[in-house]
Write a structure and sequence with these properties.
The complex is a heterotetramer of chains A (294), B (549), C (337) and D (696).
Chain A: H1 24-27, H2 32-50, H3 64-68, H4 87-123, H5 125-140, H6 143-154, H7 158-185, H8 188-195, H9 200-208, H10 213-236, H11 248-256, H12 264-293
Helix pairs in contact in A: 2-4, 2-12, 4-5, 4-7, 4-9, 4-10, 5-7, 6-7, 7-10, 10-11, 10-12, 11-12
Chain B: H1 2-6, H2 10-19, H3 24-33, H4 38-45, E1 62-67, H5 84-88, E2 96-98, E3 104-106, E4 109-114, E5 120-125, H6 139-149, H7 158-166, E6 167-172, E7 175-180, E8 186-190, E9 193-197, H8 205-208, E10 235-241, E11 245-250, E12 263-268, H9 273-281, E13 287-288, H10 293-300, E14 305-320, H11 330-338, H12 342-350, E15 354-356, H13 379-388, E16 395-402, H14 406-421, E17 424-431, H15 433-439, E18 445-450, H16 456-464, H17 478-488, H18 493-510, E19 513-514, E20 517-526, E21 529-530, E22 546-547
Parallel strand pairs in B: 1-12, 1-13, 16-17
Antiparallel strand pairs in B: 2-3, 4-5, 5-9, 6-7, 8-9, 10-11, 11-12, 14-18, 14-19, 14-20, 15-20, 21-22
Chain D: E1 9-22, E2 25-38, E3 42-46, H1 53-60, E4 68-77, E5 80-81, H2 87-97, E6 98-101, H3 105-108, H4 115-126, H5 131-144, H6 150-154, H7 163-176, E7 181-185, H8 193-210, E8 213-218, H9 221-227, E9 230-235, E10 238-244, H10 245-250, H11 255-263, H12 304-307, E11 315-318, E12 321-323, H13 331-334, E13 351-364, E14 375-388, E15 392-396, H14 403-411, E16 418-423, E17 426-427, H15 438-443, E18 444-447, H16 451-454, H17 461-471, H18 478-491, H19 508-519, E19 526-530, H20 538-555, E20 558-563, H21 566-572, E21 575-580, E22 583-589, H22 590-593, H23 600-608, E23 616-618, H24 649-653, E24 658-661, E25 665-668, H25 673-676, E26 683-685
Helix pairs in contact in D: 4-5, 4-7, 5-7, 7-8, 8-23, 17-18, 17-19, 18-19, 19-20
Classes of the chains: A mainly alpha (294), B alpha+beta (549), C mainly alpha (337), D alpha/beta (696).
Family (chain D): Belongs to the ABC transporter superfamily.
Keywords (chain D): ATP-binding, Cell inner membrane, Cell membrane, Membrane, Nucleotide-binding, Translocase, Transport
Membrane topology (chain D): Peripheral membrane protein
Chain lengths: 294, 549, 337, 696
Amino acid sequence: MSATIDNAAAAPLTAPVDKAPPSLLRRLPQSRVAMVGLGLIIFWVALATLAPLLPLDPPNKQDLMALADPRPSARHWLGTDFKGRDILSRLIWGARTVLSVAPLAALAAYLVGCPLGLAAGYYGGKVDTIISRISDIILSFPIIILYVILIANIGPSALNIVLAVVLTAAPGIARIVRGLTLEQRHLDYIAAAQLRRESALYIMFIELLPNCRGPLITDFCLRVGYTIITIGILGFLGLGLPPPDPDWGTMVKEGTAMISVRPHMSLFPSIAIVSLILGFNLLADGVRELSLRD
Amino acid sequence: MTDDRDNPHLKTLTKQLADGRMDRREFIRHACLVGISAASAYAMAGVPMATPAKAQGAKGGLLRIGTRVKEIKSPHTYSWGGYDSNVSRQVLEYLTFTDEKGVTQPYLFEKWTVSPDLKTWTFNVRKGVKWSNGQDFTADHVIWNLKRVLEPAVGSSMIGLMKGYMLDDVTVDGKASTKIWSDKAIEKVDDYTVRLNCKTPQVAVPEHLFHYPMAIMHPDSKGVFEVGSLGTGPFTLTEFELGKKAVLKARKDYWGGAVGIDTMEQIDVGDDASAAIAALASKQIHGLVFADPGQYDALKALPHLNFYDVPTAETGVIRMRCDQKPFDNPKVRKAMRMAIDPEVVLKVALRGLGVAAEHHHCSPAHPDYAQIPPMKRDVAGAKKLLAEAGFPNGVSSELIVPNDHAWFQSQAEACVEMWKEAGITVKLTPMPGAAYWDVWTKVPMGTTIWYHRPLAIMCLGLAYRTGVPWNESGYSNKDFDAILTEAEGTLDMTKRKELVAKLETIMQEDGPLVQPVFRSTFTFMDKRVKGFSMHPTNYMFAWKLSVDA
Amino acid sequence: MGGYIIKRGASLILTLFAASFLVFAVTEFSPSNVARKTLGPFALQSQVDILYEKLGLQDPLAVRYTRWLGVLLGLKADPLQDPALGLQFKDPRGDKYFGNFGYSTLYKAPVNDVIWSRLKATAALAGIAFALIVPLSLLFGVLAGMREGSGLDRTISVFGIIATSVPEFASGVFLVAFFVVTLGWLPGTSPLDSGGGWPIWSQMILPVTVLVLYDAGYVVRMVRGSMAEVMNKAYIRTAVLKGLPMRDVVVRHAVRNAMIAPFTVILLQINFLISGVVVTEMVFAYPGFGRMILDASLFGDIALIEAATLIALTIAILTQLVSDVGYAVLNPQIRLA
Amino acid sequence: MSAPPAPDGLLVLDHVKVEYVSSVGAVTAIPDLSITIRAGESYGLVGESGCGKSTLLMAIMGYLGPTGRIANGRIVFDGADVSAADPASLARIRGRGCSIVYQDPNAALNPTLTIGKQLIEVPMLHEGVDAKTARAKARQILTDVHLPDPDAVLDRYPHQLSGGQKQRVVIAMALLANPKLLLLDEPTTGLDVTVEAAVLDLVNELREKYGTTLLYISHNLGVIAKVCDRVGVMYLGDLVEEAPVHELFANPRHPYTRRLLACVPRLDTDKHTTTFLPIPGQPPSLAGRPRGCSFGPRCAGFDAPRCGVAPIPEEPAGPGHGVRCVRWRELDQFEKTDAEHVAPATPGVEQVMRSADLSKVYDLGNAFMGFGSSRQLIANEDLSFQANKGEILAIVGESGSGKSTFARILAGLQDASAGKLMVLGDDLSRMPAHKRTLEQLAAVQMVFQNPDATLNPSHTAGFSIGRALKKFGIAQSRKDLDARVKELFGMVRLSPHLARQRPGRLSGGQKQRVAIARAFAGDPKLLVADEPVSALDVSVQAAIVNLLLQIQARNGATIVFISHDLALVRHLADRVVVMYLGRVMEMGPVSSIFSPPYHPYTEALLAAVPVPDPTVKQKHLRLEGEPPSPINVPLGCRFAARCPRKLGPVCDETPPPEQAAPDGHMIACHIPVAVLARVTPIFQRVQTPAGAANPS
């Protein structure tokens, strides 16, 4: 029984029909926050991609000459770590790991979480109960504890980190997708699809999922940021990716002992981590603001 | 002194000293081992005896040491001397005392004599030692402790150490076990005399008695150490909180004399290297039990600290399983060694705090060390050997690195870089220390801590003799075993060194290990702490210390 | 209401049950076994084998899990405490009682002796941090969300986002470098012991700061978001157009509604603070719950991991319950069922 | 309008210009508007969505938000310039001079505070009285707005009240400030028609009692006709016409006003006699405001040199009647009063749909593990009616009547609990969509209520039509598909290039056209239309209704039309079913429903309908309370509890008999048909202007 609501009151009048918002991606430049975030991410992606072409020391090469004075110098712009390895090179090569593992892990979590959430939201009933119950159990776990227990037991490797992220993040994603699905499930376009007897899979993936993309893009960026923090924490707790290949968290950890005399050893890796996380968080924030503006 | 002159071993030893077959240091060490008093030994060697760090007199005050406060309940089954025994060490004492130079001296045993065949050891219990409840310390107490640690059900690692000369293998319910080889093995001569009758000759018995699980407990304790436990030592444990701190209060009636401080607190600073540094920097603690090479630079920069170090035979052996490909081929094993420059490892992993080793586990700190030509790094040679072994394209393997010794990883990383140049690809896999001990004899390549042991042949015998429990590499070489057995029965130092040289050569050519460095153990203490010296096994003796206000 | 409590209680037990089994299964992947961990690295393999068999470690997972559960529920005696093993493992509470988490192989002590003091220490840290996070986040969140898009809002939002982007280990490390090493104003570690000349309150400052910085950033943003949303609601317009001064509009009409959504999030922080402080505890050598879990996990101390998991989960689920009840109190439209 | 502000104006808007500022620049919402409202007057502002009427209201209250501003002109209230007021005096004006009643009472009340707390704030703040006095005052006002048990209401939270009660609370809140001017912003939109009528009665009553001046904003001309003395018509921020209410309805002078009135369904016409005259095109965006006359681009009489250059001045068209049109005198030359009349489809005798004792019962929760009692919601009970080929069967009723449930069962979105539902010979009562054959699915399609939800925002407008064509096997190849989609777009009068647009770029009317095209993709024999136009502006609604009638005339489909709008039903239905709480109260041919004998419920509904004609007088008949919850249904007649003609216990205890009246007219009531027939008709014309037809 509701009629159109003329709520042009406090907000600007509804967007003109002939100028509906273009896709989120094309509007991204409107958000300064998002652009700063994107800039930070692109900066690291570029460095990571170009790593083999850059005139850098190999990341694991130990420069014995630098052991005496590891501070930043013309030879090593960001100095060396206490094993004589070039920090800049290790940061850039380390970015390759972080930038592949974190998004990959988040993506894998989405591949698991989305179908679960869609099924729970669309089918409801027992399917929903089972999926939600399992999700609840995993989500009740204090997340860091779960990571520590998992990684300490199955061992630190890129694959295992991906597995751990999937296990811990998929339920959260499923919950979000379920919520978004529930919002839509009773909308008329779903009914219309049912009335032409579309299959459940079709409705879930073609009709429902695309409409979840706004919140999911935001969530994805946040999750990548959080995964980077997690990988950093695991490295810091000594559960990082196996040595000697550079891992940002491990670099911070290794540098902390020297913080009072050689602060650059943990300062630069920390800045790297913070900048990349900030990038994803800012992007997420910008995207969210933009999608709220619709 | 008269007793010393009667010592049956004196003649051999003095002769060797006179012939120059044994240096003065070795003479003193051996003389002490066989029961000659340190004073006599030093005198005979013509070395002025360094005044042992004496207690500074009762000045009072509080000493706070950063460590990990681990479980301490069962001293006889301690698994590592570094942390757990340093709490009980202040309360429970040992029968002998091995100083930082490796010289074993009397302690609760006032003196001892040994038969010429090195099988019968007679120990005199020091009189006047009183338990903290006032009771006298007697031979019965000693025997109770000895028997207890050799009881398989107790699970003390003393079994491993004394098995060769005190225990027989037996089968109980189809399971391998051990028992004391003879009813008379541990003999009470009188209230203040104990005799050990060994199955085989053994020169190192007094050193073994200083092994950390051999803490002397009161029989009433039933082997449990806790707050208020009886001990003969200078302190009593008054407070203990796992993972937090242990508080020890000085006894007024300690047999050894005045105790320098009133209270010792051992504070748990965690595993994080930076937390310990922060605690020292903010003067929350006076010093650390020991420091890691990774902390060295930072601590050196703190002006209120003194640096203490001592060279040791402690090392991290990268051992290869000889029954697994590709290490079943001795050429591959040798190539692994040839690709390494120990000096690089020393610099990178130990900040130079140690000595370069020669891949044979015998240290210049060992008296029976023999100087042989060091292995030079030879990348081309290593490649050639690999090609000969059938690996022209190099080999690859996985190296397990237990993460409870931070410098192991630095060592491994340095090695990986050098191996890479020789076409050897090694993947590092860190593992919690606890987990490593379940696989340490199984993985193809692993890094194992070998603590300081007084003799080179002890190390070789424990780790590389065919079939012994701690032979982690599965190494089996008949020649090696034969020479080793011969060396163990040879008291003549020159001869023994010749044998050891052969063993060292076999290790370098055929052995299962890459062993680039021996480390010095070191620590930092507040300059106000007086009387401290670094012990190679990180033992602390708080009663000798004092703290300036 | 009675039905509600029974329902929640049943779900709590079910969750604990499932989670404990999950953890049990995960620790299967851990190398080494209880016998080796109990006896330590230098015990002979034969000794380990004897204990292995005596403890029934060769049994299938389900059998061992049932046995563990039996010990926990007080139906079975803890096998490690069997004096026949000669392990000197003795729990002063007896070997058979409800809530017997068994024996920690890492600390060689009953789990109940180890775990509660850690929890207390962490609770103190978490409590202080929480007591700061909540008012700070509410204040800044409300200030920012009150006027969306204002300069104050942007400043607070940017600070919030930066704060959440700095992992605890990074901020911890730099706070130490600055306040401990450079200035010498604060102690570098927090052993919760005043013996080193630093009173305990001074030892709490840095860990609490690290937690507050990281966490408040997040909560501020939540509160801000909710506040901004509420400020756009029609009933706020109603309040303004009633002629209420801005302060009354915010305090009386906006804040309570703005609290509804972040309330759950705020309570979830307790959960995070109890277990997620592991990094902070590592940096400051704080003798807490998180560090204990890390140690236990690295060592593979199943009994301790299980106990810690169950306790953390119970806290988490109770927090959730409190948040649901509180949610219903804040929001009269919700009925608990 | 442009006359100098009258000295007796309580509220004077003097050349007000309102802008919204954004990063891309300022957008003018109201270019230049002047109104004077005299004390004691009831002024109505009418216009379609986006015309700026709410913006104007907020400008008067000084609450344009951070982006809005009054760029020019003055708003003088009771001698004080609102547009220049400081916050304190603004607060004083808001609190004591000028109160507002909002459109959506659900949103306007703070959900976490009790009604009492929200009410007593006002006197405590503005009169400085203590809480007790304030509460007494609040209680008094609640009594004035006829809320039963005001003490209980004071202690309740908003969600514990019904929509109508909440709107009464909002009105009470506004009255508490003793305002001189009461602004009402669509206060009855979203309420059921019987509730709406009661609220409007209240407004009129209070106006008489307190002598408050009213400014009433609505899109509903019927409501305006009921409560206002003077009316202004807004289009795109301009006041295009202003006149006393009778004058405006009798002699509309602006082309827009005329078109608007021609789009409104009336109770005295139907599809056979009249065709709606929709306005071509759609309103431009504010940013694309045309030069000259804002209505120019859509006006049949647009004459560029005269209309498209300068702002149009206001011209007097009678006493108190102003119009902004330069050609108002020439209206008859270009305004057709009669559009091309489309002959509606002729109903056949062939039965397409028949329901027999159809029931739908929802089990509300198996409470957890047997705790709590399980409850049932009876949505439909014993529905028995039929629809023939080419017929429009309308089902009317207020919210909760179960009409949408029936629609969903019919379409296959739900299954029934009992009874039969024969469609083209098959019983579909227990055959939801996934069990139906493709032929059965194609035969029954549905058009939904909410244009914003009917199309998937992620897919193009043509996408779902293409899917339907493919699924129903009508077209497979890309080429065929494109051709068919184009054809269907043509059928619903949409440019084919819109098929490639996403719904975000379509207007509500366009979306509903796409939805109709989609429903007709499979050439259905039966179309279920669930309130397809209720969310649309009246001019758009008219166009969609015309479209539906045209399509039906062409392909002879049967339409089951669900609606709450009796006037619209009067216009297009052939037969009508009146439902209340899941049961049929009355049914029959459309004309029989709108004349005696009435079912008492139908009678009350008709008495409540807002008629867009101030000359029609309705019989005063109001229902007590609001429809009870369908969870605890009475045993006897569903309507007994609210029935003004209740006989006694028999109504409560015995289900009413289904009495037959002539022409297949059925009334389910205990009162004999003969008695029911002895009532006066609901609608009486007071003064009949020339040319108006006799209301039925």
